[in-house]
Amino acid sequence: MANAFFSDLLATISERGRTLLRRGDASDTKRDADGLLELCGALLSGRGEASGTAMAREVLDLYQELDAAGRRAFFEGLVRFFGPDRERLSKAIEQWRAKPSDEDASALHFASEPRRQELIRRLNRAPGGTGDLVKMRADLLGMMNGHTDLAALDRDVSHLLSSWFNRGFLVLRRIDWSTPANILEKIIRYEAVHEISDWDDLRRRIDPVDRRCYAFFHPAMVDEPLIFVEVALTETIPGAIAPLLAVDRQHLPIEKARTAVFYSISNTQRGLGGISFGSFLIKQVVEELRRELPKLDTFVTLSPVPGFMAWVKQDKELPLADEDREALKRLDDPKWFESPETAALLRGVLEPLAAYYFLRARTPKGRLIDSVARFHLGNGARLERINWMGDLSPKGVRESAGVMVNYLYRLDDIEKNHEAYANDGEVVASSAVKKLLKGEGRRLLDMRLS
């Protein structure tokens, strides 16, 4: 209710400001990228709170009217015309060089800030401004697509979004069948790991006694889940997804549950891509589950490996013997897993290769290739187990040859594991995974592992 009251108050202020603007013929603004940039300049020139809030809303509304070409021109204009004040920055640099001091360092810091950062802050004051800026960044990311001309703008937007969406602002809420329908509909729409086919499928995931769903919200976007986590309560650690999602599965009595399985974690806002919500989000869900169900003693994921097959197909320097490369050709048959002989042959190749993928393979910048691995290891998990044929859905076979993994969240080790990964890039893994890497599952070329 407090959020709704505050939003209504801002909307009232904004509407009164709009009235002032209309009296000043602000509605004559050109409805193209140039006109929008002029309006942004006026917004930065300094206005009263009411008129400034209304003008910010006007900028966001006019942006929505632009086509793709207009939006790109608008972004290019923000890069070209709303950078740092060069004269002010030059003076600050000269003062710092002449006599460095904390005061001069502070002046240099503020002088170097691009004007577009203050513009984004003012746009954020508009009613609904935060959500609109997230959508605007989604457009920006779509237009960058490897191009660097808009990178400076994206750095500024992501810098501010990182501040506004840090973990201290996020609210964890349980999602169940009593959750408002507009939020439940978004859970169906945004599910990115295991598609939810319809409302009955959703109910099977959130309503039974042995299922839970949690979502993180931001106070400025109260009806928009940012991340949601689907949880299965089980007796032991599962190695395959199909039994967890089966329509006719037997529900586990809650008193028998000892393991919480995070089997789907979805980030719903493309505009927040690459924005860290802070570490230990999963730890917050773990603590919530332990408060409700103190007998739970194991917290683990059942995670996809979405980048595995792309890496296998594109990396010409895989640590494989010639006969193993020949065996991989059998993956061209989409039904390879239906042949026990083929499945056994490929298991001997792919399990050790998966261990290498997680423990040794890196991008040219030294990062883990797999985004899911980066998320869980960054949250303090341990790579616990590689599950052969864990997901035989068409998507699972296509993206990971059916491989899934378990990441284990042990509360006493979360911070230590996080530090090892964040500071040293170390992947904390179980002995079972390390044994695969040493070649106890199949042949790996020793020269590649030295």
TrEMBL record:
Residues 82-165 form the Malonyl-CoA decarboxylase N-terminal domain. Coiled coil: none annotated. It comes from the Bacteria. One of its GO terms (molecular function) is malonyl-CoA decarboxylase activity. Residues 168-409 form the Malonyl-CoA decarboxylase C-terminal domain. Gene3D superfamilies: Malonyl-CoA decarboxylase, catalytic domain, Malonyl-CoA decarboxylase, oligemerization domain. One of its GO terms (biological process) is fatty acid biosynthetic process. Pfam families: MCD (PF05292), MCD_N (PF17408). This is Decarboxylase.
